[in-house]
């Protein structure tokens, strides 16, 4: 019955991880997966998360394993919404904006992207979705599964090793049509580590408004990119406040910024163009209808941790401190790799290693060079040349730089 099933190549990062695990070389280095590692190359539960986990354990709440509601934990959802849309003042303008936003809890960022794609494919019925080239591979899978035509817009200018703003704008201007969905990375673009400037974001917002495109923000790195929560959601907050008639949505993940990868904590927020509690409720009910049929409700454990932190000013400060620890370490490693390549006189320009932001660097190494890195030097990164900077440590960065130098020269 099943002998004719297609042979899918599930995201190449998983094959890379398996090869890395099987490699017995003592100096092997993993620059593949998008997970934070400390300077010893070990997983790092955030200090604030460990503290809250202990508190919750001691509380011994008998309801801690109960079901959530279908929409999820209401307090968590309000805090999550306030975080990405930058609410906090409680002004009448803010309250009005909140009336436009329907939120549901999801199985992390992937689940939020999926619920968004599912909801929009059913109710917006876009002719196509525009995805950056390159992007997080799962964007393609998620939209392919909804049967929506996928088109790509240029994002990376290989020669300049820069964001291809002109290419993106020209393509969308000429080819995108009303009601098309446009997927945008809110910050720390995966895999390139290149984001639009504020002026470019404004132009993108104007283009979406003028052409009637539906912006779909994917926010997986808020606070993780620059260490600053407001700065990392500038794009989202600009669209919300400056394009009052534009409808849009946002998939939010707490995997990276809380280090809660396996807990699957996320939210999907749909912004309508009417500040109406009735419309908001109707959107929410429709999202709940889809959720009920898919996974009934999201898990409780991780969202309780996030909620506990965001509810408490002191814990929130401690969280910000943890975010700074992570984002600073990444910046230090970027610089260390850059300095070592300079010292070695490695051919080519390497400034992009320090100017790109977030977890990833698009190194510019070719697929052949990445193969050689693996085969000769036991340094594992994707063939696209994407390196997860968090795999670098004070101990291995010189080794990695020498390996880069070797594959570039030979
Ligand atoms: N979106 C982007 C751009 C990502 O890079 C990731 C994770 O790598 C996600 C969404 C979702 O991750 P998760 O489902 O673990 O929250």
TrEMBL record:
GO terms for MF: L-aspartate:2-oxoglutarate aminotransferase activity; pyridoxal phosphate binding
PROSITE patterns: AA_TRANSFER_CLASS_1
Top-rank taxon: Eukaryota
One GO process term, biological-process aspect: aspartate biosynthetic process
Cofactor(s) this protein requires: pyridoxal 5'-phosphate
EC number of the protein: 2.6.1.1
Protein family per UniProt: Belongs to the class-I pyridoxal-phosphate-dependent aminotransferase family.
UniProt-listed NCBIfam families: PRK09257.1
Protein name: Aspartate aminotransferase
Organism per entry: Xylona heveae (strain CBS 132557 / TC161)
Lineage of source species: Eukaryota, Fungi, Dikarya, Ascomycota, Pezizomycotina
